[in-house]
Amino acid sequence: MSMTNAYEPGRAELGAIDRTLVARRERLLGPAYRLFYERPVHIVRGEGVWLYDAEGGAYLDVYNNVPSVGHCHPHVVEALCRQARILNTHTRYLHENVLDYAEKLLSTFPSELAHIMFTCTGSEANDLAYRIARSFTGGTGFIVTQLAYHGGTHVIAELSPSLGEYVKLGDHVRTVPAPDAYRNSGDEVGAAFAKNVRQAIEDLHNHGIKPAALLVDTIFSSDGVFTDPAGFLAEAAELIRGAGGLFIADEVQPGFGRTGGHMWGFQRHGVVPDMVSMGKPMGDGHPMAGLVVRPELVQAFGKSRYFNTFGGNPVSAAVGMAVLEVIEGEKLMANAREVGAYLHEGLRRLADKHPIIGDVRGAGLFIGVELVRDRVTREPATDETTRVVNGLREKRVLISSAGPSANILKIRPPLPFSKDNADLFLSTMDEVLVTT
Ligand code: PMP
């Protein structure tokens, strides 16, 4: 992924231990990895919304959606340990866990989406969606947004323009601008998005390519977080279907209750996708992911064998079930809605005080704050955004940035984030903005 908040060697003075760790990473992991922040963070323990360094220093996590129900949640850890002590195999043997979990997970979806196939990563889930879409439609063309990230397998990297100039998009891939209501406020957002999708479909046809699918992250996370007006995806979804293609929702970012009002991001838009990929928050840190599909799409595909060695194993299924139980038991969706609204309001108050805040947008506990040098020209405040992200990090509050100009603060804490946590974040942000 082209990184907006990456460590650059030599920019900041590091302590002896961190210097050694950075050097070892380079020597052992090679050149492709990136660290966050001018001064990387070295974490040794996590609990709830807090991360701790080796000296016991506490960092407020306002960024990580993988530990969705909180770092090292005891109910999830207990479920993992319990099942790991008994058995871990794979889906070639009969076992209740995978079925109990599939039933529970599918019950959160509209009834048309009735099968789930398990993978270990979001990339694999999208890769599977790609294969099924091609097999069902007979098409090969894919439409994604201009700064989308959908994963790192060969075919999905070709659908991930956010990887930047060194990864070539496929000839069968077309990009469309994300539905950005801030920078295109003149147009009706859904109609403008649909118009761009229509043009992409026409362009595919003009090149003799039959469309297979429109694939979008339903919260447009790497594009810059676009959420409103709810419903803006519906017209484009209809269009791609009219052209013989499928509508695939990538829920790796907004899924599992984060948007507050619904379990899944697509539900805000009143659409029922043909396939839904999911990952990151699914296992609270345990590597699990999956693809939910309409059964008719996989009838022919199912003639070939699908096996994912680790996907859907009894331990992962126990972990996934525990995550759903915590979301329900701790009413985390309602918390995302309430605390998300509280945070949103607090950020709007900060916008009254700090003219650099051009826009505050989001749903539940997924918020984007766009920083601009001038509210009229909306010139992106790219360097200032870097300073804010790093200024917060120095005060032990962790967020990151996104968008084509890297000027959008990405605020996406674990779901048990409280109003007290929000207050701490807002007061720290206020301090940092004063000095930016
Ligand atoms: N889709 C989206 C929207 C993502 O953000 C990511 C990960 N950043 C992926 C897919 C890929 O997931 P994974 O890293 O688990 O392969």
In summary, what is this structure?
By secondary structure, this protein is an alpha/beta fold. It is built from 11 helices and 15 strands.
**Amount of beta strand:** 15-25%
Using the coordinates shown, work out and report the CATH topology of the largest domain. Aspartate Aminotransferase, domain 2
Strand order of the largest sheet: 4-10-9-8-7-5-6
What radius of gyration results from the CA coordinates? 21 Å
Order of helices and strands: HEEEHHEHEHEHEHEEEHHEEHEEEH
Q: What would you give as the CATH superfamily of the largest domain?
A: Type I PLP-dependent aspartate aminotransferase-like (Major domain)
CATH architecture of the largest domain: 3-Layer(aba) Sandwich
Which quaternary structure do these chains form? single chain
Which CATH first-tier class of the largest domain would you pick?
Alpha Beta
Please provide a written account of the structure:
- The chain has 2 domains: 16-69 and 331-434, Aspartate Aminotransferase, domain 1; 74-329, 3-Layer(aba) Sandwich (Aspartate Aminotransferase, domain 2).
- The protein is globular, with a radius of gyration of 21 Å.
- It is of the alpha/beta class and 436 residues long.
- Helix content is 35%, strand content 16%.
- Strand 5 (141-145), helix 5 (154-157) and strand 6 form a beta-alpha-beta unit.
- The chain is built from 11 helices and 15 strands.
- It has helices at residues 16-29, 74-86, 96-106, 122-137, 154-157, 189-206, 234-242, 314-329, 332-353, 382-394, 419-434; strands at residues 43-47, 50-53, 58-61, 115-119, 141-145, 173-176, 211-217, 246-250, 275-278, 289-293, 357-363, 366-371, 397-398, 400-402, 408-411.
- The strands form 3 sheets. A 7-stranded mixed beta sheet has the order 4-10-9-8-7-5-6, with helices on both faces.
- The structure holds 4'-deoxy-4'-aminopyridoxal-5'-phosphate.
- The site of 4'-deoxy-4'-aminopyridoxal-5'-phosphate has 15 residues, from helix 4.
